[in-house]
Structure formats: C-alpha cells, structure tokens
Amino acid sequence: MIESKVVAMLLAGGQGSRLKTLTKKVAKPAVPFGGKYRIIDFALSNATNSGIDDIGILTQYKPYLLNSHIGIGTSWDYDRNMGGLRILPPFTSEDGGRWYTGTANAVFENIDFLDEMNPEYVLILSGDHIYKMDYSKLLKAHKEKDANVTIAVMEVPWEDASRFGIVNVDDENKIVEFEEKPENPKNNMASMGIYMFDWKHLREYLIKDVKDRDSDNDFGKNVLPLMLKEGQKMYAWVFDGYWKDVGTVKSYWEANMDLLDPMNTLDLYDKDWRIYTRTRNLPPQYLARGSEVKNSLVNEGCYIRGTLKNSILFSDVIIEEDAMVIDSVVHSNCVIEKGAKVYRAVISEGITIEAGQVIGEENSENICLVSEEGISME
C-alpha cells in the first residue's frame, strides 16, 4: 500500500470520437463495459485498491452521466472527511472561461488544487483504458530510481506501435528518447499514459509549458520531451498485465469478448483486487425453461427465453422466445424480439431489435454497431 502523499489526477474528459455513436451522449470514460461497469471504473478501482487516498477527476466532454455515475465516490470508498474524490471541470477565471486545451493544460488549470493538497508525488491517469494495476509498485520503482518522472510502459504489437508514444531506454530502463506516435518506431515499448511525477518537478514544467505559445499543452508531445531535453531523470516501468485502449468500436467489442476467454488475465472475480462500480437495485436475471445460455455474462434484471452464446448482456435486457444473440455486446434496456437474430454486434442502450430481424453475420470480420441512428459496419 502507498504510504507517501500521492494525489492522482484522472483525465476523464475525452470525447472518444472513434467510438462513433457510443460516445454521442457520454464521455468515453463513461461508456458501459463488461456487463455492469463503465470504463472509468477500472482506473478508479486501481487507485483505491492501491491505497491512494486523494484523486481529482478532470472532466470536460458531456460530463453529466459521468458525474452522476461517480457521485461523491462512495462506490470506490472516496466519500471521506479527509481527502477523497473531487470532480474538477473547466472553470471561468479572470481571463474568461475556456476548455482544457490538452492533457498537461488540464492539470495546470488545477494547480491551485494540487498546491492545496501539497503532495510529494502526482500520478497522472487516463480514464479510458481497461486494465488492473497496482500503482504502489509504480511508486516503489519511481523511488528506487530517484526519478523525476516514471512512465508505465508495455510492449504492444509492432503493427500498432506507431499509434503510441514510444520510449527508448538504456540497460537500466532510463529513458533516452521519447517519440510521440513515430512513423517508424525503433521499438514497441509504448507509453500507457500513466505517469508518476515528483510534484515539485511537475509543477515547474507545467508552468514552463503554459508559457510556450507553440505548445499543444500535452504530456506526450510537449512536457515529457522537454523534461528529457533538459536532463531530468526519466525511467520506464514495464507493466506485463492486461491493458486495452478501447479506442474503436472493434477494439471495444474485442475487449468485452476477452472477458469470456478462460485464459484472459483481466480477472473480474479476483476478490483481492475488485473492480467497483455504482450498482442498481434490480431483480436477479431470469432464464426461462427452454432458454439456452452458453459462455456469457448476464447482468441483473435480464429476462431470457431465447438463445444466448458467447455474449455480454447489461441490465434489463430481454431476449424473447426463438430469438438468438451470438458473439455480441448488448447494453441496458434492450429488447431482442421473437425470432430476431444478432451476430457479432454492439447494441446501444434502449434499442429494440424487431421480430424476425437479422443483425450481422455469424462468420463476418466486421462488427455491427446498432444505435438510434441505425446500423453501421465497423
């Protein structure tokens, strides 16, 4: 557990436009995942399981549902008299109101909050990744190296490396070069967007960054390269667990399907590292006589008379008689009417698939996204 004074700053304002209609009404961190969770639950649960007492949630894009889900942090044990959770939206200052212009700017705009907290260390997190991580191990590595900043990294497939910030290190994992989304990466060791800073050094470079009118005010593009250029001690800490950036509809579907793989390392049933979420008071799921359910996650309030295979149902989903759902993710309050067939699809909340309708193809490489705006192939 963490004993030093650490404040986590969780960046949760992303739009997630590549998730198409899944983020039309909500920020990416608030997108439902895994039958009962929202994406942000993983970073919040990691923080409370790691013993971090103070966390700021930096919101921006369509924050209402996200803020309602988080509340005062009760589900993650952050409703405390001392410390706890704080929502930090953009605000009006003497210079006028403005949006956060980048990841580093979002933290800079809340520098007064951090000064008041007076931490030894500041942990920067993203609210839109699926993973389980003990941040105390990251802090331990940071202290052992006497680093100014430590970046959590992991190996990614070579074909994906150009999508990430890539770190090049020496034999002791000291960072010697930082490349933001390089066309021809020198290795496949990618930054996870998780940074442990000494607060005094982070504060100094946030102020430097905001004074640079040519800066995009981004950690990966600006702050970290400047710190490296000026000789600050930067180290990589290698993470070897499950981690997924659900940046597209297909990767979102794949991450949900991973939960149904018995070899998956993202263990939702680990009692020593629970993933917490805000829960609803709903009746148990009902599996009617004659229904068929195989290798699926089914949340509360679901009513199944048809066939469900290798799929994930959120709460209050109805699958009527002779209907079939295979290899799909079905959000809350959906109805699959009698005789309908759904293959390899993501169905947004509140959608009704009409009787006899067929969505998707069983052996297709594509994923169907079904929403109020219709059906699209991803």
Offer a few descriptive terms.
single chain; 378 residues; six-stranded mixed sheet; 20% helix; globular
Proportion of residues in helical segments: 10-25%
Backbone shape: globular
Head-to-tail CA distance between termini: 42 Å
Rg for CA atoms: 22 Å
Count, helices: 8
Please write out the topology:
Elements: E1 6-11, E2 32-33, E3 37-38, H1 40-49, E4 54-58, H2 64-70, E5 84-88, E6 92-93, E7 96-97, H3 103-108, H4 111-117, E8 121-126, E9 129-131, H5 135-144, E10 149-155, E11 165-169, E12 175-180, E13 189-198, H6 199-211, H7 219-229, E14 234-238, E15 243-245, H8 249-258, E16 286-287, E17 292-294, E18 297-298, E19 303-304, E20 307-309, E21 312-313, E22 318-319, E23 324-326, E24 329-330, E25 335-336, E26 341-343, E27 345-347, E28 352-353, E29 358-359, E30 368-371, E31 374-377
